[in-house]
Amino acid sequence: MKFDGYIKFGEQAESYGEQYVKPDLNAVKYPANVFRLNAFINLLNQIKPAKVLDVGCGTADPLLAMRAQGHEVHGFDYAKEMVDVAKRNVKRAGYSEDIIHHNNMEDIQGIEKGAYDCMVALGAVYYARDFHKTISGMAELLPSGGNLIMSLRNDMFSLYSMNDYSVEFMYRKFYPHEKLSGDLRKRLDAFMEDHHKVEDVEKAFKTIDDRLIHTYNHNPLTVEEEILKPHGLKQKGLYFYHFHALPPVFEHSDTEEFRKLSAEFENNPADWRGLFMCSTFIVHAQKI
């Protein structure tokens, strides 16, 4: 899918931290970011890095949660409004404003190689205009043995979602549509349309794709070969969050039951079913 615009994250600065307050299943949107933050903190607690850089730190709410666990974390963001709110938040928490600065994840400036032995990126890198340049720049700054933990959008989720994305995925990855005879192509198109009719339900909230936000999707099964190895990284683990107990259309029609069932899966981010049931996943990589 082609996206025509980029979200202006700075416009959300004053309310951005609300998504990290608590896992409220009755909120407008499913509290996926709370589960994501918990998974990141669990990994940091296992790794025990000396110094962490939060890439795209937003309003610093995750950064402060990581610091509350005893981790020394600094952060930067590209949106000036986010940086302003982040500085205000860390000062209120008793830390120096200097742990937050302005920077661009696609062209990081002013940070020496090895200054941080761990980088985290919660919901940031898949918004990059040049994804591989972004990953390359981050990997270059890590020392040998350093850790990179980032969240990505799950392309495999399209197989599970039973909507237009499922059809698009199968045409893009499986069916040799361009090699089919005209008659067979028409029958395949009719078959796909008939078997992927989506219930007409009014959406309770807008998704990233509804808002035409530029993002990249990645396949958890190929992320090591396609993303990590080319940049001198090796995969240490994959973890899933934002489970969908049913195809996503049911979150809009049967919100309460859908979210209650989905939240039950979040306790096991290593569950293999996340390959399909989760719209997002976490990659833990290490610099070779």
Amount of helix: 25-40%
Q: How do the SSEs run, as a string of H and E?
A: HEHEHEEHEHHHEHEHHHE
Structure summary, number of beta strands: 8
Span between termini:
34 Å
Instruction: Write the CATH fold name.
Output: Rossmann fold
CATH architecture: 3-Layer(aba) Sandwich
Mean pLDDT: 90
Supply Rg: 20 Å
Biggest sheet features: 8 strands, mixed
> What percent of residues are in strands?
15-25%
* Domain count: 1
Number of helix segments?
A: 11
Name the shape in a single word. Answer: globular
CATH superfamily: Vaccinia Virus protein VP39
Structural class: alpha/beta
Pick out the low-confidence regions: 1-6
User: What would CATH call the class?
Assistant: Alpha Beta
Quick structural overview:
The chain is an alpha/beta fold and 288 residues long. The chain is built from eleven helices and eight strands.
What structural keywords apply?
single chain; 288 residues; alpha/beta; Rossmann fold; 8-stranded mixed β-sheet; 11 helices; disordered N terminus
What does this molecule look like?
- It is a single chain.
- The protein has 288 residues and is an alpha/beta fold.
- The chain is built from eleven helices and eight strands.
- Strands 1, 2, 3, 4, 5, 6, 7 and 8 form an eight-stranded mixed β-sheet that branches.
- Strand 2, helix 3 and strand 3 (100-102) form a beta-alpha-beta unit.
- The radius of gyration is 20 Å and the shape is globular.
- Mean pLDDT is 90; it is low at 1-6.
